[in-house]
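lol so apparently i was supposed to do this last week
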Amino acid sequence: MCGIVGYIGSEKAAPKLIDGLKKLEYRGYDSAGIAVLDGGVLRLEKRCGMVSELEYAACLSGNAGIGHTRWATHGVPSQANAHPHACGKFALVHNGIIENYGDLREELESEGRVFLSDTDSEAVVQLIDKYYEGDFLRAVKRAVERLSGSFAIVVLCADFPHEIVCARRRSPLVVGRGKKGAYIASDIPAAAESAEEIYVLSDGEFAVVSDREVAFYDGDLRRKTKKKAEYDRQKDIVALNGYRHFMRKEIDEIPLSVRNSLLKIAENNEYRNIYEVLCLTEQIQIVACGTAYHSGLAAKYAIEALARVPVEVCVASEYRYRNPVVKRGTLVIAVSQSGETADTIAAAELAKKLGAALLAVTNVPYSSLTTVADYVLFTVAGREIAVAATKSYNAQLASLYSIALALAKIRRQRAGKKTLFALPNLCKKVLPSVEAVRGWTPHFVGAESVYFIGRGVDYAAALEGSLKLKEISYIPSEGYPAGELKHGTLALVRENTPVVAIVTQRRLVEKTMNAVNEVYSRGAKVFLITCFPEICGRKEVFSSVLIPKCREAFSPVLSVVPLQALSYYTALARGNDPDKPRNLAKSVTVE
Ligand code: M6R
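anyway here it is w/ 5-amino-5-deoxy-1-O-phosphono-D-mannitol bound
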């Protein structure tokens, strides 16, 4: 999703901006641009396509500048719609959505103003220009007061060559200070390389960033002090280290992510407050999007099986617009790798308003979700760069299983601690399946559609396998409960349709194999992922991959690994970049 950078200091801004934009590329974008202030003159350069196409602009001189990678929401990807947007003495970059931009545009146009783009963002810079009477910060404040929706904005003004003004409401923005100047970015790692101090802007705050200092203001422009963020730059260094793609590297990092994310909540004083809220929990609602939603679905089986606590799993974008029932004793768990997903944050805010206790499970310290939640559990997957989530899914499962374990203990159910803490080792043992599924790709690469089937936890894993495949290989696919096929979807199965069956639960082997037989009889090629060697050789199975056995409730943490790998190798075989799928963004900060 949109990425923002800014720099002001003793060095040339343009190369720093381009460098910063490259660090934000992983978020997903379709166009990029920068603006620099050179001797009181604003210079803008923008391009459709990759940041690399903007490298020519690194020669621009000027010590203050802003940059942006755009993921189109209002207006097609085009040079005109790319940021920065300019008006009068101002240039602006924006991340978020201005919900009342239609009204604002109408008002501004009726005053004779001319818009050069179709974006909602241009209305903001036009408003700043309208309200400008010589006070830069006040003009931004007056404009911001007129906005509904979400924004992080960073603004340059030709009259103030030594200042950049920032404002934020529900979209992330950080400011860093280093020896050679100040750095602004959408996430900490993009600002942190040269900064010694990092500050995370809160909702409703403004910052005036100069080459000498960073000043923070509240919504009424009262100066305020701010605590530095704790950040370990060394821990956050990401490199391919010999891998061709981050996705492949991140799959190999699964055992470590799981190991680092498993917690003994009931036994560790650090989690005392979480333990206490679990003691009061009668039911759980999990809100999340995409892969995080799928980890919630998989965890539901574990929490209900281990602790006998009812769990409802809700797509966050649905939850936020329905009228959810939040009874006394409801714990809402918002799961989000980035902690910046707009729908998940909105669902979490609603749950809190309705009286639920709110626990965030996220991979990113200082993310917006952490500021909304009453309690936070960090998954420790390390930075995930590939748009397709892999190790973060497994880490989320590890955190959610840890919650299941604590709940089981509280409710005096047989907990299965040993089996949980055996998972990192089993994750290591499942890694050979990554290369084993590589041989399957010729059967998938030209497929019109693919089906993933399973029951219970295997159905949860099937949903994630299907999402992975469609996301990076662009092959239509569906994850389906094995028993439901014959109620409709079976009509789509034809000669050579690849069907991936996941079978990890002893009592359901024959039940799922019935469905396998049904698709086989209609010509499907069946690919099996199982921990039961005895079913691999059956005639209806075209090819199989054996994964380690574990406690059934936890099996998605293992069975998902060959599924992730299948999507990776299929995407490669189709000539796609698995790390940067078309149309998608890593962090979905708009609704
Ligand atoms: O950062 P989040 O976990 O909140 O992101 C949620 C989804 O956008 C994300 O999981 C998405 O579905 C992944 N790209 C899937 O691989």
